Amino acid sequence: MDRAAPLSAIRSRLRLASAIGALLALLGTYIVSTTARADAAPGINAIRVAEFPADCTYSHRLPDDPIIFPGLPGASHMHSFFGSTVTNAHTTLPDLVNSPTTCNPRVDVSSYWVPTLYNNNVPVEPTIATFYYLGEGVRADVVAQTQPFPLGLRLVAGNARAAGPGESIARWSCLHAGHVPPSKNFVNCPAGTMLESYLDFPQCWNGRDLDSPDHKSHLAYPVNQACPATHPVHVPKLRQVLRYPVSGDPSRFRLASGPGYTMHGDFFNAWPVEEMSRRVRDCIRPVIKCGHDGRPI
Amino acid sequence: MRVSVAVPSTLLIAVLLAAGCSAGSPQVAGPSPASAPPPVAPTSEAVPPQGSSGPFGATDIAWLQLTVAMAERLLPVLDLVPARTTDRAWRRLAARVEASHRADLARSHRLLGVSGAPATNPHEGHDMPGMVTEDELATLRSATGKTFHRLLAGHLRAHLSQSVRIAAAAQRGGIHPATTALAAAVVRGGTTELARLDRLDRPPIATPTAGIAAEPADRDAQAA
């Protein structure tokens, strides 16, 4: 409600601007067309960030991985699952479609999973888990041509086998304590703040494969603000942000896969095609920040 | 070219089966796996004339990769045994497990070669269920006598239990005949080795301490 009032105020100002524009039409059509376009767009006050989110609370834990170890329950280290509540070692796309989900929006029945975090060998789950779909890290003209993730895409980011921070793209930091420098391994967060993990998935697709033998190489990270010729299709950058309700001495923490720099994320896309297409069209390509419903904030 | 590869492969399997204690089923050696490497999901006409091999499924490949990773983690433990204990029963058990694992490793590598998939899974972590960690290996290197036997028993039990568990899943979920046959052999061999281990070292009943025992309990707690 607190947003409705300023919005209507802005709209009436827009109508006024539109009227003035009509008068100025005598002097030239350029101003009219610009004003009319702004008046028609739902987000004249849009936040110019190409983004739509899915907030997916913790669902369940299993030592399963339907991408890396399909059909082999118990083969994996412990994973914490978000999104679809049905995911296990045997999960395929038809299992996810129409499954219950922990996500806001409810239409996102994708499955997301990460190695479980342990604090003194007790599992800890994120209190906030947000999966941002972004249009950034590439030139504006590349963002404008973003395509939706194909239905059924399976993708892994990060390095579960990292033997040191140098082999990792993980990022750990503290929520509400920006002065603590981010690190590829766990950081010591002040009491009252939360340990947070950031992980960016690759955003250039080869346009062909839903998976690959290493579950990574059908996508690539951008090079020089553009997608390489081998992976020409620009898709949203999936950014996984997890906030864990722990702080303090990081020597008590471990991931099921090892030290903090072994953080990785698995994504099994089951967004309804139309829902993701709409968000890419209305939020990513025009560079507008959208809410969970995929509409401009 | 196909013939020259296929013949040694068949011989190799026969030799490895004879060497490994997991041998026992004639049909395991019977179907000679494809000599021409098909892609992960070949069309039916890509299957060679023998028709005994067929395509590999995702479960087949994932299991072969994991079997390689697990065997490679256990062999350094078994290599320690002759130097750390003079007990003949433990040495004999270690030698049996080592022989079967070297045989399984060779077969897994060969099947992965046929499948065209990489020999290792680029994703799986360093500390997978049933695997001995670097720290645990270091502890073993300095242990002797009863302490060594106890630690060795724990690692062998965790490894063999996990091997049997995932091989049984691969036997059910795999589609490649030679791979599911190998999985069946691993289930049989691992079960036999676990029974031998139990005769040497009674399994813990009330106080499971290994990570593999903690995981299902953790899962149960979640389900409750």
From TrEMBL, chain A:
This is DUF1996 domain-containing protein. It holds the Pfam family DUF1996. It comes from Micromonospora phaseoli. The lineage of its organism: Bacteria, Bacillati, Actinomycetota, Actinomycetes, Micromonosporales. Residues 65-271 form the DUF1996 domain. InterPro entries: DUF1996. It comes from the Bacteria.
Automatic annotation (TrEMBL), chain B:
Residues 79-199 form the DUF305 domain. Residues 203-215 have a biased composition (Low complexity). Pfam families: DUF305. Keywords: Signal. Residues 1-18 form the signal peptide. Residues 26-52, 203-224 are annotated as: Disordered. This is DUF305 domain-containing protein.
